[in-house]
Amino acid sequence: MATNLPSSSKPSNLFAAVDMGTNSFKMVIVRSDPTGKFLTIDRIKQPVVLGRDMPSSVPNPSLSTLSQSLSLQALNHFKEVLNSHKIQQARFAATSAVREATNKAEFVDNIRKTLGLDVEVLSGEEEAKLVYLGILQFLPIYSKIVLAVDIGGGSTEFVIGFKGEVLFATSLKLGHVSLTERFVKNNEIADMRLYIQSVIEESGLVNKVKELGFEMVVGSSGTIKAIEKAIFSGYGVDVLKEFQREWRFSKLELSSLVERLCSEEEKVLRDGFFKRRSEFIVAGAILLEEIFEVLGIEEMEVSGYALAEGMVTEVLARVYSDYDINANARWRSVVRLASRFNSEKRMKSAAQCAGLAKIFDGLRMYGEVSLEEKDVEYLEAACLLHNIGLFTGKKGYHKQSFHIIMNGSHLHGYTTEEVKLIALLVRYHRKKFPKFGHDSLQEFPKEVKRKFAILCAIIRISVLLQQYSHMNFQEVEVSHCPEGFKLVLNEIKDQPLIYGTTHPSPVSIEKEIVQELEHFRKVFQQTLMVIIPPSSTLES
After folding, report:
1. Is 143 helix (H, G, I), strand (E, B) or coil?
2. What is the DSSP string of 55-92?
3. C-alpha distances in angstroms, 378 versus 421, 432, 451, 463?
4. Arithmetic mean of pLDDT, 65-83
5. Chain segment 83-106, per-residue pLDDT in tens
């Protein structure tokens, strides 16, 4: 008789947050556990650009019929994705453009009636507080007085926080879309600088920042992340700084970038590098340069998380009674490292791999050596980091991933032995299966070597199976019977069409899976059957 094994990956562990911004609508889907640890498993963006209806020179702006129609289309797409994954915990929040619109009540009511979705319209202060919560989940800054700056399409949020408490928060009507529409398109750069300075001066922000002070400055959201990427990469030049990307930049580096961006000769390069954001990057970079100047900022660190993750954090705090926003420091350092070297597409693949590995959690009592919770943590970390070496190219990327983990002091809270174990799992997630006698494993005790073999067998299968991107990895059936284990993958039903994606043919990876199932059999002394719809069944 088959016994169903518990799985930590299920729809009830999935949460979503939608940031209805001035430039684009963004949805993040995360998988969480009761400790509050969460991992973003998907990000979807729709370029609605509500800010075109919100020029700062117009006293009573309203959302146009076209913008409302595009908004409904984007939100309907998000709703289809949520339904396909059976996600019931979702939060929708609108920011500056909707906040300033005279017809916001009509807009929100129309969304409710048409799509059945409830949308919160955040005040500027609420938006700033959520941004702070978001960056706390990305950077180890809980015990520091932090000035956070988040540049959006229609406004910029400023918040000073300490130990999870907001000391000051404000929102200024300075956004890269609204500034572009009013100044950049008319080539009025000098006037834009004066306008930015006057808005900041009249707000009283400078005096408040001087009064409270700050130990560090953190920037978030797309514009600031794009600026950091441009500075790190040499702006269009193929520069590799050996494993040392720290996601921070100085005032001098920012000024040099602004100077290049404002050059008319740079337009072709700018469009190629920044793509859709190119239209607004000049306004965003100049705005940030002026903020540096008036607030006396010399260096800014960049967060991969912002408003949407702050929304998720608030939801998790309500769902889990013992939620601690400062917990899981080790896990956050893993996520930080993965985010810094991976594109969004590769990050999604890594998250799917980590989710699949967690599905194997129910198997951990069946091997010759039982795995502990910390061993599963190593496995999940290795899955999330297995492809970070791809930023240098595909050839030998598993070795590059290994070197990044070993040489960068990126993983905080882990012992030297734990870091090496994670790095070795990453190193051997592909190519030759390691032997107990391998030189790299000599320093580990025999029991650790046995656990390593089990974890290695699981990560290698997980990496291969995550290539089936049309599978619903949140609903995987795992069972055990005298003949062995059975893993059944299900397709995502009613999945909305996403253009530009391709799925590998089962035949293309079938041979590799058969090899890995044989490794699994040797390690567990039991077979594993993998059933992939519609009829591809692979068995060791």
Report:
1. coil
2. -TT-SS----HHHHHHHHHHHHHHHHHHHHTT--EEEE
3. 8, 20, 11, 15
4. 95
5. 988 898 999 999 999 999 999 999
